[in-house]
Amino acid sequence: MRIYFDHNATTPLDPEVVEAMFAVCRDEFGNPSSVHHYGQRAKAALDGARSAVAVLIGAEPSEVVFTSGGTEADNLALRGAAAAAAETGRRHIVTAAFEHEAVLNTVKGLTRAGYTATVLPLDASGVLSAGLLREAVTANTALVSVMHANNEVGTIQPIAELSAIAHEHGAVFHTDAVQAAGKIPVDVRALGVDLASFSAHKLYGPKGVGALWIRRGVRLAPVLTGGRQERNRRPGTENVPGIVGFAVAARLAASRLETESSRLAALRDRLEEGVLARVARTEVNGARGCRVPNTANISFAGVEAESLLIALDLEGIAVSTGSACSSGTLEPSHVLKAMGLPSHRAQSSIRFSLGLANTEQDVDRLLEVLPGVVDRLRSLTPQPAGSNE
Ligand code: PLP
Predict the structure, then answer these.
(1) How far apart are CA 40 and CA 52, in angstroms?
(2) How much is the pTM?
(3) Which end of the chain is more exposed for a tag (fewer CB within 10 A), N or C?
(4) Are β-strands 3-4 and 317-318 bridged in parallel, bridged antiparallel, or unpaired?
């Protein structure tokens, strides 16, 4: 029996998504920009998909721009908004140290191109303080980017409050909502943001497809050059099968959001309580009351997280030590470091991210094998004095 607890890295395709994508691959090969019958059929599929994604996030279909994933959506948001704002003379960007690399490295790139950036620290709660943002935003700030839910610890940010602060100073507000959509309700208007990024493969859709929501009226320069697709905002022939798969995934996510999120929260709590009760010297990372329902990040003192990941994999249980993009680096998680956790704790932390197929039996199987695995790993590493409770 194999158990997958790494849904924040990616999710399996929902069978309904596979079916819809297969049908489009087979039947709708037209280019949606073509005027003839084949093109118009593909365009109809694209329009339907745009509406479905818009419904999931409380948007107008015309505000949804399809991209090749969350990374491209983040790049388009940040580079596009920065370029548009530079015309007004604003050249300052504010973001937070626990953002995904797609945001952090894009901001870094923008600083090399002459923008200045403030990267805000977090505390152990993993929730960004509105006070810190208030101190950082100035009349020169073009853009503020803060993620909706963190991918490693799952903490949900007070986006409505943060976007209001950015707007008081006339700055554009972007949120990377890749890890929020499908897990908690995301209503872009209620959040008060201007730009929001999404990715299909985090909600049982295909990889390589995402979207940037651009509030009507927000100025954004395209990043790629080419044709006039996506209302001149993202050139290139659209990935129609992938986009239709994204739309089916979005519809399914909306229809099961309520039941699935309470089911997952109960499973996650069972996992966390079980680990804390059965394995000594464990701690949950991030504010427990303020997280997406599927994510638990737990540190196991005196255990190298990579070794624990491999040992669990040998038992048929897939977990992760942080974001899939930085796995294999042996660097402590930049998220846990940004939250002020000491390196040794960051290096002993494991993320369990649950999803649709997980059951109580999966959690119980983990709880059955984990204490023995942790004991064995601890016995192989010298433990600090007084740590054998
Ligand atoms: N933003 C966040 C918060 C993510 O977790 C991810 C995926 O790991 C991305 C962006 C990148 O999305 P994609 O894999 O679709 O490029």
Answers:
(1) 18
(2) 0.96
(3) C
(4) parallel
For 183-230, the pLDDT digits (tens) are 999 999 999 999 999 999 999 999 999 999 999 999 999 999 999 999
Ligand 1: which of 145, 159, 178, 353 to mutate, most ligand atoms within 8 Å of CB?
178
Q: Which residues contact 23 (CB under 8 A, 6 or more apart)?
A: none
Fold of 15-252: Aspartate Aminotransferase; domain 2 (3.40.640)
> Which CA distances in Å does 179 have to 100, 202, 319?
10, 7, 17
Would you say 350 and 359 are in contact if contact means Cβ atoms under 8 Å apart?
no
Distance CA 363, CA 367 (A): 6
Q: Where are the domains of the chain?
A: 3-9+257-380, 15-252
Give the distance (Å) from ligand 1 centre to CA of residue 70: 5
Pocket test for ligand 1, best of 10, 202, 203 (most atoms within 8 A of CB): 202
The response to whether residue 100 sits with its C-beta less than 6 Å from ligand 1 reads: yes
User: Per residue in 125-179, pLDDT tens?
Assistant: 999 999 999 999 999 999 999 999 999 999 999 999 999 999 999 999 999 999 9
Centre of ligand 1 from the C-alpha of residue 98, in Å: 13
Say how many Å lie between the CA of residue 287 and the centre of ligand 1.
22
- With H, G, I as helix, E, B as strand and everything else as coil, classify residue 183: coil
- Residue 323, pLDDT > 60, answer no
